[in-house]
Amino acid sequence: MNSPLLPTYARADLAFEKGEGVWLETREGERYLDFGAGIAVNALGHAHPHLVSALTEQAAKVWHTSNLFRIPEGERLAQRLVDHTFADLVFFTNSGAEALEASIKMARKYHSENGQPERYRIITFEGAFHGRTLATIAAGGQKKYLEGFGPKVDGFDQVPFGDRQAVIDAITPETGAILIEPIQGEGGIRPLPVQELRRLRELCDERGMLLILDEVQTGVGRTGKLFAHEWAGIAPDIMAIAKGIGGGFPMGACLATREAAKGMTVGVHGTTFGGNPLAMAVGNAVLDVVLEPGFLAHVERMGLLLKQRLAELQDRHPAIIAELRGQGLMLGLRTHVPNNDFVAAARQQHLLTIAAGDNVVRLLPPLIVTEADIGEAVRRLDAACAALEDEMRTLARQGVA
Questions:
Q1: Do 218 and 298 fall within a single domain?
Q2: What are the distances in angstroms from CA 351 to CA 146, 173, 348?
Q3: Contact by Cβ (8 Å): 84, 295
Q4: How are strands ordered across the β-sheet holding 330-335?
Q5: With a threshold of 0.90, does the pTM exceed it?
Q6: Is residue 195 domain-resident?
Q7: Residues 283-324: pLDDT tens digits?
Q8: Cβ(31)–Cβ(2) under 8 Å?
Q9: Is the domain of 260 the same as that of 377?
Q10: Residue 325, Cα to own-chain centre: how many angstroms?
Q11: Which of 45, 171, 370, 381 has its CA 20 to 30 A from that of 296?
Q12: Which of 226, 258, 290 is the last residue of a domain?
């Protein structure tokens, strides 16, 4: 079928008409269990009544005024984020990439304000994914995203993920910051050990650098804490968030200490749509739910249960599943078969999962997932593994493998 859409996605031939909780439904009435959550976006599932109410109520009032005027719901959301994080200040955006752009600019501006404009370089990590803008693909450093777009934006030095000595060796008088995901998402659900995150914090303090965390995928409860860096007991200077904070509505934010943000004065940075009343209403509604007593404990419990059940699945299907990774409800299966084949096999069982780097399949269910939902998902994964094993045996008999 010819489509007027730019062909930059290899879309599955599926279209969903409605959703409820952890389920999506096609126009034909077929139901799919959603363990992708729109790539960790639908943190509270589909059509969550509190989010629907907040959005429709705001939609009947005002949609957009621009940042030329005060937006009270944005001030409220910013204050709540400040109250529950390390941050003193918040800048709202429409996406994670924009939140990262603001973070990068902020770090550079910080050193410029300190009389060291030459300290614009940022150490980043192989396998990282920070967005699709020219600056963020340079920060990620992956050739498949950089190729064909001209000279790479200068200022980023990649080192192997988790290699402490490589970080130290990469520091020069021009290094101003370190940018890292506590758990690489697109890179294959690769967690950074908490002791390494602590060491990066210490290194930044020792060398006068800023620590920037990309919590676009790990944030807003995904790992069982409000933000993943809390497991290490440290705080960044700057943090980019998105995905879960909007619960499906496009929004992100750059959070920072007052010191790190001291160069971000009137006219230095801006956005037309960022922080609009619709987004702010939904963001506040998301926090209403995520900050309820017991909610994050529920995420942690469900994450442990899912991990246990996936470990049992790996024991039953060692020819298919090579490794289990991740934390909370951000888990990954590294597979012996091509991960896209596994995703397709799961989709045949009406279970939605997401491929990632390092031949990993991501499981990112909505944070409201229940024990029964997990049991149903594992049953469908079991059937997908069995189908792949049957296919492997068939190919072996035919002498293809």
A1: no
A2: 32, 50, 7
A3: no
A4: 321-327, 330-335, 360-363, 354-356
A5: yes
A6: yes
A7: 999 999 999 999 999 999 999 999 999 999 999 999 999 999
A8: no
A9: no
A10: 15
A11: 381
A12: 290
